[in-house]
What we know:
With 167 residues, the chain is α/β, with parallel strands linked by helices. Helix content is 25%, strand content 31%. It contains three helices and seven strands, in the order H-E-H-E-H-E-E-E-E-E.
Amino acid sequence: MPRLILMLALVAALGGCNPYLYINVPAQHGDLARNSPNADVVRAVEVEAIRHMLALRPLEAPVAIKLPQGTTDLVAADVARRAAGDAEGSVVPLQEGEDAVSHIQITQVRIRGVFAEIDMLYPTVTGMPQLLTAYLEYKPMNDWTTTRVSDWPGATRPVDHGGLVTP
Length: 167
């Protein structure tokens, strides 16, 4: 019997029923999800999405990042440092990036168990930002990895997925 209970708890946690892995940033109307833009898992998916996009579509450094409303300066600095990796100083928080050539804005984070979606405004060749969605998956030995990216042609502003605060 204890094994059955342990197995059910594990299935619930990995299946997305874990309230700690049900996150909407910003908060959405009527949801029960956590909404902290400063949560460790939110940081992890933001770092992976930014790293992936910079590898896929490099930008001239320094790149300033703007994270969702409510993100503390300390968390923004941590995300920028981790996203830059070995290229220290190539990614900076928006507060430090007044002279940055490029800007990335993360507008929404949605995490459902082992899957996540990150909406971001990413600069194009013309300099105009375009809405992109990065889809991520958590794999125990590899952490969060980006599985694909969707471009939303013509979308140059954040999309409201039912949030309480307009991004």
